[in-house]
Automatic annotation (TrEMBL):
This is Secreted protein. Keywords: Signal. Residues 1-23 form the signal peptide.
Amino acid sequence: MKTIKYSHIAILAAASLTAPAMATTVEQNAFFDNLAAHCGKAFEGTVTAGNTADSAFSGKKLVMHIRECSDTVLKVPFHVGEDHSRTWVITKTPYGLHLAHDHRHKDGTEDKVTMYGGMTADMGSDTEQSFPVDAYSINNFRENGLDVSVTNVWHMYVKPQEFTYRLTRENRDFRVDFDLTKPVALPPVPWGHN
């Protein structure tokens, strides 16, 4: 009888390892849903904080497009003029929300600096989530001579009238605000996506 009991426990334990429960908090789920509510729409943004490191964004049309939405993943291309290389990927995981930056070349191949980002370190709120840099990203940055980025923290704010993408670290505060009250024409398909 004991053998059957232990076998049953082992089976249950194995099943729980293969199908982990989603552990995003109520606040993280609400944030995810608030952004997903704009699925299929695009919005124009303006740089509201930055420095010389952000000159690539100067004088260019900035458009975010909440393009692909599922129950667990949002893909949001961020178009900078004619540069369609960037997509933010927000994913529900067993550990909270994860933000990755999917960077592609014009031919669709991955950039050597791609899928960097971080995991939420706390519950955040329904309007604000922060993503401190993760170990994968630190290693990727160091391998590519971007040691200045190893303390990055990304922030996203979604409010009824505005979405904000922000990057902070020592001596850097980059911010783009997008007007959610005025949808714009949809941008082209981002590089490397169907």
